């Protein structure tokens, strides 16, 4: 059950990352230039959360199961 929840959490984060990148690519050049910093920060947040979820999942499996 925990494995399924961990995989589901990772899939949701990966889906959010791809959706953020896809939405940021739309619009005119001026919009893309204005949102480039925001998209970069959001992408880094998604990557950090994905790493934390994976590490937390493995720590939980190692010490609590």
N-to-C series of helices and strands? HH
Estimated share of beta-strand residues:
under 5%
So what's the overall shape? elongated
The biggest beta sheet is recorded as: none
Q: Averaged pLDDT, please?
A: 80
The amount of helix comes to: over 70%
Task: State the end-to-end distance.
Answer: 12 Å
What is the CA-based Rg, rounded? 15 Å
Indicate the low-confidence ranges by residue numbers: none
Classification by helices and strands: mainly alpha
Number of strands: 0
Q: Total helix count?
A: 2
- Summed up, the domain count is 1
Keywords: Membrane, Transmembrane, Transmembrane helix
Transmembrane segments: 43-61
Question: How would you describe what is shown here?
Answer:
The chain has 65 residues and is an all-alpha fold. The chain has one domain (2-64). 91% of the residues lie in helices and 0% in strands. It contains two helices and no strands. It has helices spanning 2-24, 29-64. The protein is elongated, with a radius of gyration of 15 Å. The chain starts with a helix and ends with a helix.
Offer a quick outline of the entry.
The chain is mainly alpha-helical and 65 residues long. The protein has 2 helices and no strands.
Looking at this protein, list some descriptive labels:
mainly alpha, transmembrane, membrane, 65 residues, transmembrane helix
Protein topology:
Blueprint: H1 2-24, H2 29-64
Helix pairs in contact: 1-2
């Amino acid at each position: 059950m925990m494995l399924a929840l961990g995989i589901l959490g990772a899939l949701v984060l990966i889906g959010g990352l791809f959706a953020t990148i896809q939405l940021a690519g739309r619009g005119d050049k001026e919009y893309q230039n204005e949102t480039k910093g925001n998209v970069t920060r959001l992408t880094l947040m998604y990557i950090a959360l994905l790493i934390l979820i994976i590490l937390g999942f493995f720590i939980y499996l190692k010490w609590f199961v």
